[in-house]
Amino acid sequence: MTCTVFLRGFNANIYNFSSTLSRKDIQTLIMKQFWAIVLLAVILSCSSDSSNRNPYLQEVRFRFELNLNLPLYNDLNNIGNPVYVGNNGVGTRGAFVIKSSLNTFYAFEASCPNHTPNNCSTMTIDGQNVVCGCEGYTYSLFTGQQLDRPDDGNRYYDLLFYNATQSGNTVIISN
Known about the structure:
Blueprint: H1 2-20, H2 23-45, E1 63-67, E2 83-85, E3 95-101, E4 104-109, E5 124-126, E6 129-131, E7 138-140, E8 161-167, E9 170-174
Antiparallel strand pairs: 1-9, 2-3, 3-4, 4-8, 5-6, 6-7, 8-9
């Protein structure tokens, strides 16, 4: 019974408050609130953080399909076996693809991310890591992180990640 009395009193107070405002004032108040919410959503969704952008590598758009039934990509049927895809149009210098779990594949740019692409920048596979031929930097193909990052105060970048999805016996890598 106490609840009902409180609600009745609360409704009465709202009615008295709203009766003092004109219909136009209420519409104006609602529109201001609507636009404030829209502005807040736009501000929160925008991001100007370019601190992760690698200045050495371009983000090239491509799409390439790997057929796991072909002998060239057969190693991708086992977890932890990386494959180098050096076809034209795949990334800047190709891509490394690795199967990290039963249904998860990772793909990374094959050019070293810590200098501009040149004759020695295409990395080579060393187990489950890749090594840059220029400086000897080592990167993990499971995380993309540089394993031997120097502590000299300079900015170093991790491998450039590409999308990798499996559809049946095909792995699609793209950017």
